[in-house]
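Support reply, case 0932

Customer input (verbatim):
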Amino acid sequence: MPALRLPLSPALLLSFSLLLSLAPSLCAAPATALFDGHSLTGWEGDAKWWRVADGALTGGSTTEKVPRNFFLATTRSFQNFDLRLTLKLTGDPATGMINSGVQIRSLRVPADTEMSGYQVDAGDKWWGKLYDESRRNKVIAEPLDAAAADAAVKKGGWNEYRIRTEGPRIRAWINGVPTLDYTEADPSVALDGKIALQIHSGGIALVQVKDVTVEELPPTPGAPTWDKVGHPKPRDPNAKKKKAALTPAPAPP
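Our regenerated output:
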Protein backbone atom coordinates (compact mmCIF):
# COMPACT_ATOMS: atom_id res chain seq x y z
CA MET A 1 0.00 0.00 0.00
CA PRO A 2 1.58 3.36 -0.98
CA ALA A 3 2.28 5.91 1.76
CA LEU A 4 -0.52 8.36 2.34
CA ARG A 5 0.53 11.92 1.50
CA LEU A 6 -1.62 14.78 2.68
CA PRO A 7 -1.35 18.16 0.96
CA LEU A 8 0.10 20.93 3.11
CA SER A 9 -1.58 24.30 2.91
CA PRO A 10 0.52 27.49 2.68
CA ALA A 11 -0.88 28.57 6.05
CA LEU A 12 0.25 25.30 7.69
CA LEU A 13 3.71 25.60 6.14
CA LEU A 14 4.00 29.18 7.42
CA SER A 15 2.98 28.12 10.94
CA PHE A 16 5.56 25.33 10.89
CA SER A 17 8.30 27.75 9.75
CA LEU A 18 7.42 30.22 12.50
CA LEU A 19 7.55 27.43 15.09
CA LEU A 20 11.04 26.43 13.94
CA SER A 21 12.25 30.03 14.07
CA LEU A 22 10.95 30.41 17.62
CA ALA A 23 12.44 27.13 18.87
CA PRO A 24 15.67 28.63 20.29
CA SER A 25 13.81 31.32 22.22
CA LEU A 26 11.30 28.78 23.51
CA CYS A 27 14.21 26.78 25.01
CA ALA A 28 15.78 29.85 26.65
CA ALA A 29 15.02 30.71 30.24
CA PRO A 30 13.12 33.95 30.88
CA ALA A 31 15.24 37.01 31.67
CA THR A 32 16.01 37.45 35.34
CA ALA A 33 17.36 40.43 37.27
CA LEU A 34 20.96 40.13 38.51
CA PHE A 35 20.68 43.29 40.62
CA ASP A 36 17.85 43.95 43.06
CA GLY A 37 18.41 47.71 43.09
CA HIS A 38 19.46 48.04 46.73
CA SER A 39 21.99 45.37 47.75
CA LEU A 40 25.00 43.35 46.56
CA THR A 41 23.11 40.07 46.85
CA GLY A 42 24.47 37.75 44.17
CA TRP A 43 27.68 39.78 43.76
CA GLU A 44 31.09 39.87 45.44
CA GLY A 45 33.94 42.36 45.36
CA ASP A 46 36.13 44.78 47.32
CA ALA A 47 33.80 46.79 49.58
CA LYS A 48 36.09 49.82 49.49
CA TRP A 49 35.72 50.18 45.73
CA TRP A 50 32.26 48.67 45.10
CA ARG A 51 28.93 49.51 46.71
CA VAL A 52 25.29 50.33 45.96
CA ALA A 53 24.55 54.04 45.68
CA ASP A 54 21.54 55.85 44.20
CA GLY A 55 20.03 52.54 43.09
CA ALA A 56 23.08 51.48 41.07
CA LEU A 57 26.05 49.17 41.43
CA THR A 58 28.81 51.73 41.90
CA GLY A 59 32.55 51.34 41.53
CA GLY A 60 35.44 53.78 41.95
CA SER A 61 35.71 57.12 43.70
CA THR A 62 35.00 60.80 43.18
CA THR A 63 37.86 61.87 45.44
CA GLU A 64 40.81 59.52 44.93
CA LYS A 65 42.53 57.75 42.06
CA VAL A 66 41.74 54.09 41.53
CA PRO A 67 45.05 52.32 42.32
CA ARG A 68 44.33 48.97 40.64
CA ASN A 69 41.69 47.29 38.53
CA PHE A 70 38.79 46.23 40.76
CA PHE A 71 35.92 43.95 39.76
CA LEU A 72 32.46 43.26 41.11
CA ALA A 73 31.59 39.70 40.04
CA THR A 74 28.53 37.50 40.12
CA THR A 75 28.67 34.65 42.61
CA ARG A 76 27.63 32.14 39.93
CA SER A 77 28.78 31.27 36.45
CA PHE A 78 27.04 31.49 33.08
CA GLN A 79 27.75 30.01 29.65
CA ASN A 80 25.39 31.15 26.89
CA PHE A 81 23.27 34.20 27.66
CA ASP A 82 21.78 37.51 26.59
CA LEU A 83 22.92 40.16 29.08
CA ARG A 84 21.49 43.68 29.27
CA LEU A 85 22.58 46.50 31.55
CA THR A 86 22.72 50.27 31.70
CA LEU A 87 26.09 51.86 32.45
CA LYS A 88 27.35 55.36 33.18
CA LEU A 89 31.05 56.20 33.30
CA THR A 90 32.27 59.55 34.61
CA GLY A 91 35.57 60.99 35.78
CA ASP A 92 38.31 63.53 35.21
CA PRO A 93 40.61 62.50 32.32
CA ALA A 94 43.24 64.90 33.65
CA THR A 95 43.73 62.58 36.63
CA GLY A 96 44.37 59.41 34.61
CA MET A 97 42.59 56.73 32.60
CA ILE A 98 38.78 56.73 32.86
CA ASN A 99 37.70 53.25 31.84
CA SER A 100 35.40 50.38 32.70
CA GLY A 101 34.09 47.23 31.07
CA VAL A 102 31.90 44.17 31.39
CA GLN A 103 33.71 40.90 32.04
CA ILE A 104 32.06 37.77 30.68
CA ARG A 105 33.04 34.12 30.92
CA SER A 106 35.69 35.13 33.45
CA LEU A 107 37.21 33.94 36.73
CA ARG A 108 39.22 35.72 39.38
CA VAL A 109 43.00 35.45 39.34
CA PRO A 110 44.05 33.93 42.70
CA ALA A 111 45.55 36.31 45.27
CA ASP A 112 44.95 39.31 43.01
CA THR A 113 42.31 41.92 42.19
CA GLU A 114 42.35 40.91 38.51
CA MET A 115 39.96 38.71 36.54
CA SER A 116 40.85 36.53 33.58
CA GLY A 117 38.56 36.37 30.56
CA TYR A 118 36.74 38.41 27.97
CA GLN A 119 35.98 42.07 28.61
CA VAL A 120 33.55 44.11 26.53
CA ASP A 121 35.21 47.47 27.04
CA ALA A 122 33.79 50.86 27.98
CA GLY A 123 35.55 54.20 27.87
CA ASP A 124 36.77 56.87 25.47
CA LYS A 125 38.37 55.17 22.43
CA TRP A 126 37.54 51.79 23.97
CA TRP A 127 33.76 51.48 23.56
CA GLY A 128 32.81 48.29 21.73
CA LYS A 129 36.23 46.64 21.79
CA LEU A 130 36.74 43.11 23.11
CA TYR A 131 39.79 42.83 25.37
CA ASP A 132 41.16 39.56 26.74
CA GLU A 133 41.87 40.50 30.34
CA SER A 134 44.76 38.81 32.18
CA ARG A 135 44.91 36.02 29.59
CA ARG A 136 46.06 37.09 26.12
CA ASN A 137 46.29 40.67 27.42
CA LYS A 138 45.32 42.37 24.19
CA VAL A 139 42.38 43.62 22.14
CA ILE A 140 41.10 40.57 20.26
CA ALA A 141 38.25 42.29 18.38
CA GLU A 142 37.72 45.86 17.22
CA PRO A 143 34.26 47.46 16.89
CA LEU A 144 32.35 46.61 13.73
CA ASP A 145 32.26 50.33 12.95
CA ALA A 146 34.29 52.47 15.37
CA ALA A 147 32.68 55.70 14.22
CA ALA A 148 29.16 54.30 14.63
CA ALA A 149 30.01 52.88 18.05
CA ASP A 150 31.42 56.20 19.21
CA ALA A 151 28.40 58.09 17.86
CA ALA A 152 26.06 55.74 19.73
CA VAL A 153 27.63 56.51 23.10
CA LYS A 154 26.08 59.14 25.34
CA LYS A 155 29.29 60.42 26.90
CA GLY A 156 28.85 60.97 30.63
CA GLY A 157 25.31 59.60 30.41
CA TRP A 158 23.53 56.26 30.72
CA ASN A 159 24.28 53.74 27.97
CA GLU A 160 22.60 50.40 27.41
CA TYR A 161 24.96 47.53 26.74
CA ARG A 162 23.60 44.28 25.35
CA ILE A 163 25.96 41.29 25.20
CA ARG A 164 24.94 37.95 23.70
CA THR A 165 27.07 34.80 23.87
CA GLU A 166 26.23 31.63 21.95
CA GLY A 167 28.94 28.98 21.78
CA PRO A 168 32.14 30.61 20.50
CA ARG A 169 30.28 33.67 19.20
CA ILE A 170 30.11 36.94 21.16
CA ARG A 171 28.03 39.91 20.00
CA ALA A 172 27.40 43.30 21.56
CA TRP A 173 25.27 46.40 21.03
CA ILE A 174 25.49 49.90 22.52
CA ASN A 175 22.15 51.69 22.67
CA GLY A 176 20.88 49.32 19.99
CA VAL A 177 23.81 49.86 17.60
CA PRO A 178 25.74 46.65 16.71
CA THR A 179 29.33 47.10 17.87
CA LEU A 180 30.89 43.66 18.13
CA ASP A 181 30.71 40.27 16.44
CA TYR A 182 33.53 37.91 17.40
CA THR A 183 33.93 34.16 17.07
CA GLU A 184 36.52 32.44 19.23
CA ALA A 185 38.83 30.17 17.20
CA ASP A 186 40.94 28.82 20.07
CA PRO A 187 39.41 25.58 21.44
CA SER A 188 41.39 25.96 24.67
CA VAL A 189 39.53 29.14 25.71
CA ALA A 190 36.77 28.59 28.27
CA LEU A 191 33.24 29.52 27.23
CA ASP A 192 31.80 29.79 30.74
CA GLY A 193 32.49 31.87 33.83
CA LYS A 194 31.38 34.83 35.90
CA ILE A 195 29.91 38.12 34.74
CA ALA A 196 31.67 41.10 36.31
CA LEU A 197 31.98 44.87 36.20
CA GLN A 198 35.32 46.66 36.15
CA ILE A 199 36.57 49.99 37.39
CA HIS A 200 39.95 50.53 35.75
CA SER A 201 43.01 51.82 37.55
CA GLY A 202 44.27 55.29 36.76
CA GLY A 203 42.19 58.35 37.36
CA ILE A 204 39.45 59.60 39.63
CA ALA A 205 36.56 57.70 38.07
CA LEU A 206 33.11 56.37 38.85
CA VAL A 207 31.12 53.68 37.06
CA GLN A 208 27.44 53.11 37.82
CA VAL A 209 25.44 50.14 36.56
CA LYS A 210 21.73 49.37 36.85
CA ASP A 211 18.91 47.45 35.11
CA VAL A 212 21.05 44.29 34.93
CA THR A 213 19.16 41.33 33.48
CA VAL A 214 20.27 38.05 31.94
CA GLU A 215 18.43 35.58 29.76
CA GLU A 216 20.16 32.22 29.91
CA LEU A 217 20.36 30.36 26.60
CA PRO A 218 20.75 26.60 26.08
CA PRO A 219 24.32 25.42 26.79
CA THR A 220 26.66 24.38 23.99
CA PRO A 221 27.31 20.61 24.11
CA GLY A 222 30.99 19.82 24.62
CA ALA A 223 32.01 23.47 25.02
CA PRO A 224 35.36 24.10 26.74
CA THR A 225 34.94 25.21 30.34
CA TRP A 226 37.31 26.58 32.96
CA ASP A 227 37.13 23.22 34.77
CA LYS A 228 38.30 21.48 31.58
CA VAL A 229 40.99 23.91 30.39
CA GLY A 230 42.30 24.91 33.83
CA HIS A 231 41.59 27.84 36.12
CA PRO A 232 43.63 31.08 36.10
CA LYS A 233 46.97 30.75 37.87
CA PRO A 234 48.46 33.25 40.33
CA ARG A 235 50.41 36.02 38.67
CA ASP A 236 54.17 36.01 38.96
CA PRO A 237 55.04 39.11 41.04
CA ASN A 238 58.46 39.19 39.37
CA ALA A 239 57.13 38.92 35.80
CA LYS A 240 57.85 42.56 34.93
CA LYS A 241 61.37 42.34 36.35
CA LYS A 242 62.04 39.15 34.38
CA LYS A 243 60.72 40.72 31.18
CA ALA A 244 62.93 43.77 31.69
CA ALA A 245 65.95 41.53 32.29
CA LEU A 246 65.31 39.62 29.08
CA THR A 247 64.88 42.77 26.99
CA PRO A 248 68.17 43.45 25.18
CA ALA A 249 69.76 46.81 25.79
CA PRO A 250 69.63 49.22 22.84
CA ALA A 251 72.69 49.26 20.62
CA PRO A 252 75.07 52.16 21.30
CA PRO A 253 74.85 55.03 18.77
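We compared this against your earlier run and they match. Two observations from our side: The radius of gyration is 22 Å. The chain is about 15% helix and 40% strand. Please reopen the case if you see a mismatch on your end.
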